[in-house]
Design goal:
GO molecular function, one term: phosphorelay sensor kinase activity
CATH class of the largest domain: Alpha Beta
Protein name: histidine kinase
Low-confidence stretches: 1-6, 596-601
Number of helices: 26
Number of strands: 29
Radius of gyration: 49 Å
Shape: rod-shaped
Largest sheet: 5 strands, parallel
CATH topology of the largest domain: Heat Shock Protein 90
Keywords: Coiled coil, Kinase, Phosphoprotein, Transferase, Two-component regulatory system
Enzyme class: transferase
Mean pLDDT: 79
Organism: Aerosakkonema funiforme FACHB-1375
CATH architecture of the largest domain: 2-Layer Sandwich
Strand content: 15-25%
Structural class: alpha/beta
Strand order of the largest sheet: 2-1-3-4-5
């Protein structure tokens, strides 16, 4: 303000609006006045104390104390009461103007300002004031004015120095832009953040320090500032070395000059490290979702905090359904002693690893390999528990099959050794009995010897059965047709079994041949049929079927004893009282029986297993309590069927493929759903899957326009196959359904469902069987 003629006078402008201050400052300074400014009443009162103005332009409406209150305080002081006050206001009410004049103001200037009016009024009142003061104390005023000016200038210099010190040492970057987004000021922090000197930044566009993508976003944000909108957002810049820096930008418009946007003030905070951490967390979260393991984080009260995609796949629960829920209520049927023991160990060691029996959303029991780790916070206080669970149900099933095979082999070796020694014991006994029969002639002695002979022969027969189990039934192998064997068995059981048992035989034409012992294989069939008869004391249905089958990799995955190749599959099923899972695991063990004492030796099924394995085959059993049992015997086809095998391979290569049709697979076995999904997708079908009937109905109701075929397992928990099928048919009477069962024969499924389902698929099935059935169903009108 130095250089202005003192004759014009000193004007103090008090206004909380920077735009108004700027306009009046320029107007009065250009007209030769010395101008002081204040943005509120308190500042104005303080400024008057050390830099007395000749006239005060005072805004009426201000935060804190308003213009009226400020005027009152000025007029109440002896040192300031004679300073002329002109109110500036947009108020037009006469009452307000009268109030101001009564408080001691000399005039009003109404907003918006007319430059000529402002200059005229200011000049007029200053002239009046000057004349008065000059007449009273001209010399004193000149001396005071010089002193006050020096003090004011020093105060301004100190204030500016303090401001620059604060700005240059601030941790936040300060970046001032003009209306075209060109840089008019930056502090030292901006220079440090970008790696440029202040001189290299000044005058350059704000957008020069961004890449194309960030520039597009920044332009949109800057346009909003033209509308005087305060903003806070993340923005990425490029350092001088080309690296990225992320900032939080708090931006405010600097003001409007004659309706024009004049610039923006931007405060920048470096958040690059936080952004990198967030990116790392996102990448880690993505990796957690890729893994097939269940990754779960729970708090110390067992509430679930994190649940990845792997957990969704294993347990069937979506993340939205389980967050905040108790993990044990979701995954455990009840709080078992095992869980309590594990929690005690974990509380002591902060970690635990082992196997757990858990349950899925569909109610299926699964086995997981679980690893618990205690997570601590920065102060090393327990914070949460990280749990990683791997589904090993299928692995455990294979282990059970393997251990069972090992147990059977060990039992066979033991039984073989015992049988050999037992035969050595029986041989001299039998010979002694025959010699005694020659020497002893009395009737009672002969009766005793006959009783001994009968029991020794019975013991010898038992030894033969044990040897059959132990050695795999060694015997003469001949090329034989299984069809004749099945027909002979049918004839025997129809003639000997009770009439209350209905016998159905279904033999595929042109069955392949096997290399085997007819007597032993006949024994297998008879044993299985007799067991079926005994399971139906009140009557029922006995079904025998046989077909050619090629076992592929998918089928072989379901049974550890299966190998890829051509087989004849013989099935014997009944509708009897079934076998519980606990007993099912032991039915092939020698001397194990559930029959009453004296009604079974416990060697029947053990012998069956030994004969089938001795022929290079394997046996499967499916059973459900009160619904029946089904034995599947697989015998390898002979080399004489090589031509058939070649034809089969050619036929497999010509299996029809899909054209994007959608198949809904409904099965409670995770492994079967997964294998079926892989087979169908590899042959150009799209697959949805459900673990039970309830989920299947929900999926079908949502996607019925997309789903072309529904593949339904007949035996499932919660809602069985027949109920599921009937419900689907109510939703859509034209729905195409492929019924699947490992136990029920086709005619029983037909009896349950009628003619609405015409195509059936027995378990286990190969990829070719599955694809052919689906193709047939697609082609069905």
């Amino acid at each position: 303000m130095n250089g202005y003629p003192n004759e014009k006078g000193i004007i103090l402008i008090v206004d909380d609006t920077p735009t108004n201050l700027g306009v009046l400052f320029d107007l009065l300074a250009d007209s030769g006045f010395k101008v002081l400014v204040a943005q509120d009443g308190e500042s104005a009162i303080q400024k008057v104390e050390y830099a007395r103005p000749d006239l005060i332009l005072l805004d009426v409406l201000m935060p804190g104390i308003d213009g009226f209150e400020t005027c009152c305080r000025l007029k109440a002081s002896q040192s300031t009461k004679d300073i002329p006050v002109i109110f500036m206001t947009a108020l037009t009410e006469t009452v307000d103007k009268v109030k101001g004049l009564r408080l001691g103001a000399v005039d009003y200037i109404t907003k918006p300002f007319q430059h000529e009016e402002v200059l005229a009024r200011v000049t007029t009142h200053l002239s009046i004031c000057d004349l008065t003061k000059k007449l009273q104390e001209k010399n004193l005023r000149l001396q005071e004015e010089i002193q006050e000016r020096a003090l004011a200038e020093e105060a301004l210099r100190q204030s500016e120095k303090r401001f620059r010190t604060i700005v240059d040492t601030a941790q936040e970057g300060i970046w001032l832009l003009d209306a075209q987004a060109n840089t008019i000021y930056v502090n030292q922090r901006i220079s440090e953040m970008l790696g440029y000197t202040i001189e290299e930044i000044l005058g350059r566009s704000w957008f020069d320090f961004m890449d194309n993508l960030a520039r597009i976003e920044a332009v949109q944000k800057f346009e909003r500032r033209l509308q005087e909108i305060n903003q806070r957002h993340d923005l990425r810049f490029l350092r001088k070395d080309g690296s990225e820096i992320w900032t939080i930008v708090s931006s405010s418009p600097m003001g409007i000059n004659n309706g024009e946007f004049i610039g923006a003030i931007n405060m920048l905070t470096d958040i690059t490290e936080r952004k990198l951490s967030e990116q790392k967390i996102r990448e880690q979260a993505a990796l957690l979702d890729i893994t097939k393991d269940a990754v779960i984080v729970r708090d110390l009260q067992n509430k679930i905090l994190f649940w990845n995609k792997g957990a969704e796949q294993i347990y069937g629960w979506t993340q939205e359904k389980v967050i905040g829920k108790d993990v044990h209520e979701i995954l455990d049927k009840e709080t078992s002693p095992q869980i309590i023991e594990i929690q005690n160990i974990f509380a002591q060691k902060g970690e635990w690893h082992g196997e757990l029996n858990q349950v899925t959303k569909g109610g299926h029991d699964i086995i997981v390999e679980s690893c618990w780790t205690l997570v601590r916070d920065d102060k090393q206080q327990p914070k949460s528990v990280l749990v990683v669970n791997t589904n090993i149900t299928e692995k455990k099933q294979f282990e059970k099959q393997f251990l069972r095979a090992q147990r059977m082999e060990s039992l066979g070796t033991l039984a073989g050794g015992i049988a050999h020694d037992f035969n050595n014991v029986l041989t001299p006994i039998m010979m002694a009995i025959q010699l005694l029969q020659i020497k002893i002639k009395d009737k009672q002695g002969q009766e005793w010897l006959n009783t001994l002979e009968i029991n020794v022969k019975r013991a010898a027969d038992l030894v033969k059965q044990v040897l059959s189990f132990a050695r795999g039934c060694e015997g003469k192998r001949t090329l034989m047709e299984v069809t004749h064997l099945l027909l002979e068995t049918e004839q025997i059981i129809k003639n000997t079994f009770p009439k209350s048992i209905e016998v159905n035989v279904n033999i595929s034409p042109e069955l392949w041949c096997v290399a085997g012992d007819p007597t032993q294989l006949h024994q297998v069939l008879v044993n299985l049929c007799v067991n079926a008869r005994d399971a139906m004391p009140e009557g029922g249905t006995l079904t025998i079927s046989a077909e050619n089958i090629f076992i592929d990799e998918n089928f072989a995955r379901m049974n550890i004893e299966a190998k890829v190749g051509s087989y004849i599959a013989i099935a014997v099923s009944d509708t009897g009282f079934g076998i519980s899972n606990k007993i099912l695991e032991r039915i092939f063990d020698p001397f194990f029986t559930t029959k009453d004492l004296g009604k079974g030796s416990g060697l029947g099924l053990a012998t069956v297993s030994g004969i089938v394995k001795g022929h290079g085959g394997f046996i499967e059993v499916f059973s459900e309590v009160k619904k029946g049992t089904k034995f599947n015997v697989y015998l390898p086809a002979t080399d004489t069927t090589i031509k058939d095998f070649t034809k089969e391979k050619q036929r497999r290569s010509q299996v029809p493929v899909g054209h994007g049709e959608v198949v809904l697979v409904v099965d409670d076995e995770d492994a079967i759903r997964e294998i079926t999904k892989i087979s169908l997708e590899s042959h150009h079908y799209k697959v949805m899957s459900a673990c039970d009937g309830i989920e299947a109905i929900a999926l079908y109701a949502q996607h019925k326009e997309e789903i072309d075929i529904v593949l339904v397992d007949m035996m499932m928990p919660s809602m069985d196959g027949s109920t599921t099928i009937r419900t689907l048919q109510k939703i859509n009477p034209q729905v195409k359904i492929l019924a699947v069962s490992g136990l029920l024969p086709n005619h029983q499924i037909t009896a349950l469902l009628g003619n609405s389902v015409k195509i059936f698929l027995p378990k286990p099935y190969t990829s070719e069987q599955l694809l052919e059935k689906i193709h047939t169903l697609i082609c069905t009108n």
